Amino acid sequence: MKYQVSSLFLAFALASAGPLPNRAIQAREVPQEHSHEFILKLVQNSLVLNNPKKIQDSVFGLLGSAAAKAGAGLVTNPDCLQQETADQAFTNAKAAGDIPGMAGALMYRSIERNTGKVGLASVICPDKAVNPEIAALTQHQDPASANAASINKGIVLELAKQLAAVGADPLLALETGTFAPGSTSDNTGAGNTCDTLNDDPGCIFSKNLLVLDATPAEIAAAVVGITPTITGTGKFTGTLGGAPPPIASDGASSRPFTVKGNTFVNIGAAIQRSCDVQHNACANAANTGALAGGQAQCETQQTACVAANTAAAAKAKRAGALGKCSNPTIVFKAGLDGRTTNAFIAANQADFNHGSALNIAVIAGFICQRLGSSCNADATAQAACAKASAAAVATTQNQAAADAFNSIIGAAGGAAAAAAATTTAAPAAVQTAAAAAASVVMTLTQCT
Description:
With about 450 residues, this protein is mainly alpha-helical. It contains 17 helices and seven strands. It has helices at about 10-15, 20-25, 35-45, 65-70, 80-95, 100-110, 130-135, 150-165, 205, 215-220, 265-285, 295-320, 360-370, 380-395, 400-410, 415-420, 435-440; strands at about 1-5, 250, 255-260, 260-265, 330-335, 345, 445. Strand 3 and strand 4 (about 260-265) form a beta hairpin. It is elongated and about 75 Å long. Keywords: Signal. InterPro entries: Appressorial_penetr-assoc.
């Protein structure tokens, strides 16, 4: 029996790192290295930031030893190329505070590596990775190999722990699963694999070939008690006196920005008002003794609030244009399409007319697709959307995911998106792992 993970991969898949080399797959008799394409692209994005061993591309780490040598750079043991690639990508992502990048590196280390025939397990790298998070992992094994089911389940559960530890969604571990077991008597070596170069999420997802190694409940149980030790970069994080009130935007209004019922013509004035409200609450708490440390800290916080959010708005104005569209942000609320639970939906239904979804990947993917087609947005805006999608899908699927998406897409969406990027003090990008596992929404469809 096999299962399909619906939607969770989609936003990650949009994180583009450019085309991957053709010659590797052309040289393989039974290739499958592009089956998890979005993971390769995530890793490639991180790898190119600093690549001292001159690894040619993330795809080579998933090839058999003979083919892997062609792109191994200074890595001398091809059986360690997958680990070396993941290790360097993780190092780079960690230095940048990039949680999706770290998640991608962890996932990449765990996906199956090609072998010469059905049922043949791949060699485990004997060297120890630099990062303990990578060192804790090994790759999935051919599902027809000895004890593969138990081995692969153990890999997924350990991966979930490592994902939770860096603040990513532990359920992403399920997406590193492999195919249903093939027949060891299959002389073609094809098994039940696929390998489609231009399938952005990866053909294992688009063709419903992914087999889950564990249940969501088992993932949740595995990560209980794990607290994230790494935080990502983000916008203003001050919370003295409470978070700044959100800035709502309405592109059709002559005074499009609203803070607690007060309307403003420009985003700068709205930011100032939002930060002032927080400052007043902070000062009141300090004056009444409810907040220790005196009022001076409130002044410092207000300066930081205005500076951080004004910078975000300024970045929005000079970044990529959205073409014919506006406000590509996402909201998370109850009562959508008759749902009894909170869900995600595009804020601008005129340009991004799509129903609600329980996972932000569906909405983010649609917005990014629309930006690249009917909106005719420029390359900068499309790249920002891809980055925003990857960040959102790696975050707990609640308001934090919407915040993560909006804070990045604000760099491409002009004033309306900039408003969304400043609506809260800081997205809860890093939750306890147990909370992350408990609150994430993931649609699983049983396939026969």
